[in-house]
Amino acid sequence: MKAKPNLTRCQWATKHSLEEHYHDTEWGVPVYDDQKLFEMLCLESAQAGLSWLTVLQKRKNYKKAFQNFDIVKVASFSDKKVEELLQDKGIIRNRLKIKAFINNANCVLDIQNKYGSLTEFLWSFVNHQPIQNAFKSSSDVPAKTEVSNIMSKDLKKNGFKFLGSTTCYAFMQAVGMVNDHTTNCFRYKVIKSLNLHP
């Protein structure tokens, strides 16, 4: 998983092999699967106040603890299950964040009933088309945008928790709703050329 020295990456993904691998294989690739989108909503909300590397290092444990982010199963987690998860050293043991995962799973079920799918609902914020940016430096990339502000407000209106505008924008970047690879990054043109909508 070690980086090839001749590849130029986004600045944030150059310090650890886990970040490099995630950047090279997932970050910015459009996601149109409800379970995967739910996973990324959870992981991005888990990051609040922490580094993304911390979350990546615990990702396998999260998948195990939260039933591979099966929306129906997580939605049914009991208070007893919450107490069990708070003893799990493999995840971030924050009661509010754990309860937010469960709350948000139930909100996803409501969204699926209202809109047909979480995919349909979330991608509507970008008119079902990835936003193509062309930032030259990581310092030019915004922490949030008007679109992420609107998404966050709408999610909150639908009962979601731990999904502020900055978290929503990080989520949008992760699942390819926006291409924020810098123009010098070897993945920039690759992501720009992707057209994965089913």
Automatic annotation (TrEMBL):
**Documented EC number(s):** 3.2.2.20
Q: Which residues form a coiled coil?
A: none
Look at the named UniProt entry and state the broad enzyme category this protein falls under.
Answer: hydrolase
Which keywords are on file for this protein?
Answer: DNA damage, DNA repair, Hydrolase, Metal-binding, Zinc
**Keyword Cytoplasm included in the entry's annotation:** no
Q: Which NCBIfam families match?
A: tag (TIGR00624)
Function comment: Hydrolysis of the deoxyribose N-glycosidic bond to excise 3-methyladenine from the damaged DNA polymer formed by alkylation lesions.
This protein is called what? DNA-3-methyladenine glycosylase I
